[in-house]
Amino acid sequence: MADFEDFERTVNLLGDLALYAHLLGADQEFIAVTGPALAASLPPGVLPPRPDGYDPNQGPEYPGEGW
Fold first, then answer.
1. What is the dihedral of CA 38, 9, 46, 28, to 10 degrees?
2. Is 41 left (phi over 0), alpha (psi -120 to 50) or beta?
3. pLDDT of 3-22, one tens digit each?
4. pTM for the whole thing?
5. Which of 4, 14, 42, 59 has CB atoms 3.0–4.6 Å from 46's, for a disulfide?
6. Strands (E) located in the chain
7. What is d(CA 43, CA 6) in angstroms, rounded to the nearest whole number?
């Protein structure tokens, strides 16, 4: 049962961090460091595998970006 509680706590923290990231004055450095650290603490197999050649910097342009 403790493993599930750890997983649930980590997912909740990631959700709270996502909400915090949208607040005015949110500490972007804290978010940049804490988010990946929390995600890395999730057990293997929880996150979907990335396809070969995946580059998080490639993808469609979103409104407000690249204008």
1. -30
2. alpha
3. 678 888 999 999 999 999 99
4. 0.63
5. 42
6. none
7. 10
